[in-house]
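[step 3/7] fold_predict: job queued, chain A
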Amino acid sequence: MILSYKEQYKEIIKRVYKMGNDKYNQNRGKNPYRVNKEPVSEPTPSSFAKPGVDFETQRICASCGKAIKIGHNFCKFCGVDLSGIQPLGYSDRTIKELANTALTDPNPGVRKDAVDTLGELGENEVLGVFAYILLNDRDAIVRKEAADELGDYAHPHSLDVLAKALKDPSPIVRKEAIEGLKKIKKKNKPEIKIEAEKEEEKTLEPVENEQESEEESEEETLKEIEVEGKDSYEQ
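[step 4/7] structure written:
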């Protein structure tokens, strides 16, 4: 169908009107360079399962991974003696900031790196942080890193928390927990053996001394008998 000049003009006017009308122009007022594009959203990394710990007032048990008061030397949950481990709250500022990052940063990659750095810079005071992360972090890679650090430290207090990690839903975490238990057993086995040998020596000492005294007594008795025999013969 061929439109007349007037009809074509009316059609053009109608189109221009529609373009300027908010009802028809859905992109009016928007960035012209992104009119036909989907809104770009940054990927949201998995967040930590629980809020951070206040290291000024709390400490984390290295055995069960639960937070208790900083002044307590015995865990109220598992009863382990923590007097040999300094609370993290008494450490320097850098260690505490790293621990907070490892617990609360929304990016699992950052949390993993923080755990790794804590293992290099910290001492036994970071064991509780690793235990807490191993049992609570949502990301398997972060939990695996915590299990790896606990294995490297090879502290006897970590046995229970690594044993709990054997039920972790992730196979890589369970595997690392097994490796950690092996490291702890290997490192502490010589000490246990030495202590056992010392106890055995203490137990055997009285018996050996008693045998020696009996042998000496028998020798003296024999000597006395010999002397008496000679005397009687000479008479």
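[step 5/7] annotate
Residues 119 and 149 are 6 Å apart (CA to CA).
The longest helix spans residues 171-234.
exit 0
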